[in-house]
Amino acid sequence: MLIAIEGGCVNGVIYEHNMRVNGKRFGYVLVAPPIPEEAVSAMVPQFSKVAADLLERGLIEIREPHNGIWAEAPPMTRAHVAAALDDRDTWISYADRDNRMVMVMSTDRWEELVRGNRVSEARQDSTS
Question: What DSSP letter does each residue of 57-87 carry, written as one string?
Fold first, then answer.
């Protein structure tokens, strides 16, 4: 969800996961070993299912802006979303060629849930 909250690209999601799971702290910096393309490719089906679930629940939206501007990209059809999530090029960040830039953004529904949880947590703290 961090990538979605920041309005990033899907091809950063697995790399962010690698950083959080395998990263080691060096002072204020979190450093993770590089993750091979084959390992990223092997994780695509799992991450695709999670993303599809978040989409179905209305917590994220994806678009493919060809100019990098979210607001100028039309919403994607269900078929286009499914094809994008199943395409390994959506998930892999290549160093030596062009990348498919499918963006992900959290929705208003996500924001409402987060605000609601913060209100609930604040109420619990005040009654403790």
Answer: TTSEEEE--TTS-GGGSPPPPHHHHHHHHH-
